[in-house]
Amino acid sequence: MPRARTSRAVNAASPLETRRLSLRPLPRRFYDRETELVARELIGCVLECSRGGDIVRGIITETEAYLGEHDPACHAAVGRTRRTEGLYGPPGTAYVYFIYGMYWCVNAVTRAEGLPSAVLIRGVQPVHGIDIMRRRRQRAGRQVPDKALADGPGKLCLALGIDGPTHHGADLVSGSTLRILRGAPVDDALVAVTPRIGISKAKDWPLRWVVRGEGRG
């Protein structure tokens, strides 16, 4: 397999630091905090998925916080069910769900076990395994532009090979198939805070963090 290159996917003007990326996973205590803080500090970290011997990575550029049973837009608003059980699990595990009958979305569970909350990872900037991502995202013989490979929650799961049967409940700290690695801090001046998008409830809550120039809206 050809060695993945980063230059075609990481824009030269991007504020994201690629020279100081670490292969060390974030510790459990990182996730065992308020969800808003975790969502902000995940910006600049690296989402990694290993599947079938292929490893792909992307720097997290966009996140949203979902706060628990009191948050109307959080799945936990309906209480503890078979679908939402993963939100009540240990911090630092993956909550992966299916939407629109066609897309997977990946979240990092936050706060102490039993307090249902999570951070939706909405976008990443590819930095490793880019050829693999291109192949997975190719549509009807047409190549998807590198900038659009993983700039949405469904797109990034397609590009990185993330799905519910394989990754729901995965340990992001000590697991081997799906991890979040330490990244380089991104200055507040380079990160916009906006209301969440693509939802119908509590859509004015400012719980979305996005690197300026990345994402939608």
Structure description:
The chain has 217 residues and is of the alpha+beta class. It has one domain: 3-methyladenine DNA Glycosylase, Chain A, CATH 3.10.300. The chain has 5 helices and 8 strands; from the N terminus they run ααβββββαααβββ. It has helices at residues 28-31, 35-42, 130-137, 153-160, 164-167; strands spanning 46-51, 54-66, 94-99, 103-109, 118-128, 178-181, 191-194, 208-211. Strands 1, 2, 3, 4, 5, 6, 7 and 8 form an 8-stranded antiparallel sheet that branches. It is globular, with a radius of gyration of 16 Å.
List the helices and strands and how they pair.
Layout: H1 28-31, H2 35-42, E1 46-51, E2 54-66, E3 94-99, E4 103-109, E5 118-128, H3 130-137, H4 153-160, H5 164-167, E6 178-181, E7 191-194, E8 208-211
Helix pairs in contact: 3-4
